[in-house]
Amino acid sequence: MSNKKHITSSRTKRKEKSIPSKKNLGQFQLNRKAITIIMGFALLVSLGVAAGSVVMKLGSAQVEDQAECAIDINLKITQLSGKDQLCLNTATKTIDFTLENGKNIKVEGLLVNTLGAKKAQTSELNDAIIPKAGMYVGNVPYNPAIAGQIKQVKIIPKVNMYDEEQICTEKAIIIEKIPPC
């Protein structure tokens, strides 16, 4: 009989080892709950980062759209003896002008829009490269017999910002009274 007791007690010991006690079972469940909470927290953090990234991307795109030429170019018509150096030369049928660039950025070209009583025209001057604080003497064709009396001349600078050409219409020079040369 003593042999039987010994066998039974060894079987019970094996069973005790394979089945966790209530104390150990509670710790096991607690650890599973903690892992679930950590996974939920990680998921929330990653969703927050993704949403923040989308908002920042949209916000920066809108800022870029609104600020085409964020830098102040300070392009202006040169004045000599108080007179603007812009005039209509009827002999050569051109509008002659002299421009001064500001000290902030190099101008890489110009667009000159002329509005006449009968016709509007645009001239692109890609050779009008004006260094910082530099000057440019130029002209664009204009025939008053075809286009009529000049109503307005708009000189628009082109600059390179962030390796991309920008046409800065909001920094344009607008002249409405063009005297003869």
Mean pLDDT: 82
- Could you tell me the CATH topology label of the largest domain: Immunoglobulin-like
Instruction: Give the percentage of residues in beta strands.
Output: 25-35%
Terminal CA distance: 134 Å
Can you give a write-up of this model?
With 181 residues, the protein is an alpha+beta fold. It folds into two domains: 2-66; 76-175, Immunoglobulin-like, CATH 2.60.40. 36% of the residues lie in helices and 33% in strands. It has helices at residues 2-18, 22-66, 144-147, and strands at residues 76-77, 79-80, 83-84, 86-89, 94-100, 107-116, 120-125, 135-141, 150-161, 164-167, 173-175.
Give a quick summary of the entry.
The protein has 181 residues and is of the alpha+beta class. Helices cover 36% and strands 33% of the residues.
